[in-house]
Amino acid sequence: MNKEFGGKRRYFLAGAVGLALGLGFATWRTRTTPATDTAVRDLWLANLEGLDGQPAAMQRYQGRPLLVNFWATWCPPCVEELPMIDAFYQENKDKVAVLGIAVDRLDAVKSFLGNWPVSFDIALAGMAGVALTKSLGNPSGGLPFTVLISSTGAILERKVGKLSESDLNQYGLMV
Prior knowledge:
By secondary structure, the chain is of the alpha/beta class.
């Protein structure tokens, strides 16, 4: 009977280890998304406009870590976090690109940036930007929305709502 209990215990322990490994893998998969993520491919192929009215070349961001921040001039938390994102960019521009995607009109964005300039790149998506945020993991389409993408195209982090300095510090350590 003792031998039978030892055999069952071994199977139980093997099952517990397998379950723990499976749960660990599932947790890891929810934090990172593989490079084949169609949402990231959609971002690279998106028809965004630069501040000059010309198409923005999204492919230039491929192969490099990228922080993408969706914002609008009419969104108070978006406007509040822009200086913090700009400071993050200034401190980390050698290791991560930053792109602000405005879900707004060109004239409003140009007017806003004339008064409160930023040093990172800005592109415009208009209201189509809401659909793009949803495809990147923002089911409500709320703003601001930030995505950190690795150099391989994996989504490392997503945040709906205003960023904090600790969020940006963590992102700086991840890239």
